[in-house]
Specification:
41% of the residues lie in helices and 7% in strands. By secondary structure, it is mostly helical. It has one domain: Arc Repressor Mutant, subunit A (Orthogonal Bundle). Strands 1-2 form a two-stranded parallel ribbon. The chain has a two-stranded antiparallel ribbon with strand order 3-4. α1 crosses α3.
């Protein structure tokens, strides 16, 4: 039985797909874990996207991935959470009450 932190070839392929999708998020926009899962053809795999984000390569715009409520999933007072908020704000993404307006800043756009 595989532990969720272990990476097999199937996970590596999925993680690579996640990273490719995250690279496509435009500057000043955000995407949710679920949106990324849908983009890679695994609509019920938002958690897998979260696991992949823990292993993201340098230079990946990880800060553009947030949860379905439009919130940063990291603890707000953590170094990583503060960094994510700062990076989003530097790109012009507005957080009101700790939440991003997904209708305004979400990517991909809803059809």
């Amino acid at each position: 039985m595989s532990h969720r932190g272990d990476i097999n070839s199937s996970s590596q392929n999925t993680y690579s797909d996640v990273f490719d999708a995250v690279r496509r998020i435009p500057y000043g926009r955000v995407s949710t874990y679920g949106d990324i899962a849908r983009l890679i053809g695994r609509p019920r795999a938002a958690r897998v996207v979260g696991y992949a984000m823990h292993r993201c390569p340098p230079g990946l715009p990880w800060h553009r991935v947030i949860n379905a409520q439009g919130r940063i999933s990291l603890p707000a007072d953590s170094t990583a959470g503060l960094s994510q908020r700062r990076r989003l704000e530097e790109e012009g993404v507005v957080l009101i009450g700790g939440r991003v307006d997904l209708d305004r800043f979400g990517w991909p756009d809803a059809d």
